[in-house]
């Protein structure tokens, strides 16, 4: 941490405590005036003569108990005000980001250009992704002509994979493409959890009417295009990726696509702050406690208070 970053982030957590500095200064000033015996004679003796009648002028200019008390008071007030320059990391900062998987279940997903089928290849890739994200919350949404929440984010990857294997185009109530509804539903699920995360779409194509209906979610989106390398990717996938600000990753024969997706999901949106919750800062006022303790020890010195 550089000096510039420390100075840029320095502030007080409870700055209203600094208002106590005003009565502290007023009391110190009043004590100094009451302890100065010459103030009582200045009204009746000429100042030119008074300075020759007063002894101990040099002694009055030394550090007095009131001065030390003022220093201790100032340090105590500053400590209570909560000086800080370092933000406390969020308890969720190191946690794995959740992800919502959007699995398309239209009849086109049964094409065999990706052996054995596009849907089976999607399940295989999902299996690899879940293994690479072991312990990270993952949810599942199935969509075709309609979108349906299958699982909210769960750390049990085996359950997610089991549910994905049980899904097929035959069980969907209507054929078609409801990607826009699926994205909106995934965004809502992640938004309610307030843990950030991202969305992963496993699809072979996107209908033109869906591109215009898409709304960019609050979390990043990644699309895995499920088409064979020797077949031109669906133009709707590229259009949808542009609309969503998503990364479009083609399916690869190795784990290159899985590695890219894993990196994207790991860098998902950060957790959102709750209502009334702000950034948390680490207090540094306790560093002043030893100095305050040393000042208090002076009051145990014989004759100090009467000095």
From TrEMBL:
<keyword id="KW-0812">Transmembrane</keyword>
<keyword id="KW-0472">Membrane</keyword>
<protein>
    <submittedName>
        <fullName>VWA domain-containing protein</fullName>
    </submittedName>
</protein>
<feature type="transmembrane region" description="Helical">
    <location>
        <begin position="12"/>
        <end position="30"/>
    </location>
</feature>
<dbReference type="InterPro" id="IPR002035">
    <property type="entry name" value="VWF_A"/>
</dbReference>
<feature type="transmembrane region" description="Helical">
    <location>
        <begin position="284"/>
        <end position="300"/>
    </location>
</feature>
<dbReference type="InterPro" id="IPR036465">
    <property type="entry name" value="vWFA_dom_sf"/>
</dbReference>
<keyword id="KW-1133">Transmembrane helix</keyword>
<dbReference type="Pfam" id="PF13519">
    <property type="entry name" value="VWA_2"/>
</dbReference>
<feature type="transmembrane region" description="Helical">
    <location>
        <begin position="68"/>
        <end position="85"/>
    </location>
</feature>
<feature type="domain" description="VWFA">
    <location>
        <begin position="100"/>
        <end position="204"/>
    </location>
</feature>
<dbReference type="InterPro" id="IPR050768">
    <property type="entry name" value="UPF0353/GerABKA_families"/>
</dbReference>
């Amino acid at each position: 941490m550089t000096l510039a970053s420390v100075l840029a982030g320095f502030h007080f957590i409870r700055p209203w405590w600094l208002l106590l500095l005003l009565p502290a200064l007023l009391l110190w000033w009043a004590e100094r005036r009451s302890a100065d015996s010459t103030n009582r004679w200045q009204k009746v003796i000429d100042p030119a003569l008074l300075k020759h009648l007063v002894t101990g002028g040099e002694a009055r200019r030394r550090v007095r108990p009131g001065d030390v008390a003022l220093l201790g008071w100032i340090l105590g007030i500053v400590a209570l005000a909560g000086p800080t320059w370092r933000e406390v990391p969020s308890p969720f900062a190191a946690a794995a980001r959740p992800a919502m998987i959007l699995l398309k279940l239209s009849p086109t997903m049964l094409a065999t250009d990706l052996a054995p089928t596009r849907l089976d290849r999607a399940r295989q890739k999902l299996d690899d992704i879940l293994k690479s994200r072991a312990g990270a919350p993952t949810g599942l949404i199935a969509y075709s002509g309609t979108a349906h929440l299958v699982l909210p984010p769960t750390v049990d990857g085996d359950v997610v994979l089991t549910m994905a294997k049980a899904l097929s185009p035959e069980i969907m109530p209507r054929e078609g493409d409801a990607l826009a509804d699926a994205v909106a539903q995934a965004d809502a699920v992640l938004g309610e959890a307030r843990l950030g995360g991202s969305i992963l779409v496993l699809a072979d194509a996107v209908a033109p009417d869906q591109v215009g209906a898409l709304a960019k979610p609050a979390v990043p989106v990644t699309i895995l295009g499920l088409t064979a390398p020797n077949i031109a990717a669906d133009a709707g996938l590229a259009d949808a990726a542009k609309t969503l600000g998503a990364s479009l990753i083609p399916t690869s024969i190795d784990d290159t696509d899985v590695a890219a997706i894993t990196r994207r999901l790991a860098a998902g949106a950060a957790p959102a702050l709750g209502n009334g919750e702000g950034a948390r800062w680490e207090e540094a006022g306790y560093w002043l406690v030893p100095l305050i303790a040393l000042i208090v020890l002076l009051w145990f010195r014989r004759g100090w208070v009467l000095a």
